[in-house]
Design goal:
By secondary structure, the chain is α+β, with helices and mostly antiparallel strands. The protein has three helices and six strands. Strand 5 and strand 6 form a beta hairpin.
């Protein structure tokens, strides 16, 4: 069992490394996100696929929070320009003391290279922004549109535009 777990961790890390390219278009610098609203008021510390046993803080811009639910279906589609930034720390005591890894989602349905309308980026500490072009990110985030074990669980299986956290106009 341990070998299988190691295999998947190594496979995930290699996939992430091989799927990242320096950003040539789209996101060139990190926006000043620290003053944005947090869709989750606490530090996420539950191990999750793609982020492992890390500590995460999520921020979203005001465009993201302007999303509305469809009155008939309850589905939520994020408007273009929505940006979600997740700070990822290896240890809890590093929060706000060391530069975090950033994982970033930018809604851009006009980009033919977007994955289901989203562009994914990662910024490792001390390095530039990298565009993630593999289906690894969206392959996991597609689960947000069905019942899942995170946050409220999306028990009604509403379309949430690939976001696990239920974000909508409040």
């Amino acid at each position: 069992m341990m070998r299988l777990k190691r295999f998947f961790i190594i496979f995930f890390l290699l996939s992430l490394i091989l799927s990242c390219n320096e950003s040539k278009r789209g996101l060139y610098e990190i926006p000043q996100y620290k003053k944005w609203r947090k869709p989750v008021s606490y530090v996420l510390d539950r191990p999750v696929p793609g982020h492992g046993s890390t500590y995460r803080i999520i921020y979203a811009n005001s465009i993201t929070f302007s999303a509305k639910s469809d009155k008939k279906t309850g589905n939520v589609t994020m408007p273009n320009g929505s940006v979600v930034i997740k700070e990822v720390y290896k240890k809890k005591e590093y929060i706000d003391k060391v530069e975090p890894e950033l994982t970033i989602m930018v809604k851009n349905t006009g980009d033919p290279e977007s994955l289901n309308g989203w562009n994914y980026y990662v910024k490792h500490p001390g390095k530039g922004i990298q565009s993630v072009k593999s289906r690894m990110c969206v392959g996991c985030h597609v689960s947000a549109n069905e019942e899942h074990p995170y946050f409220d669980g999306n028990k009604d299986e509403k379309f949430r535009d690939y976001l696990f956290v239920p974000i909508k106009q409040q």
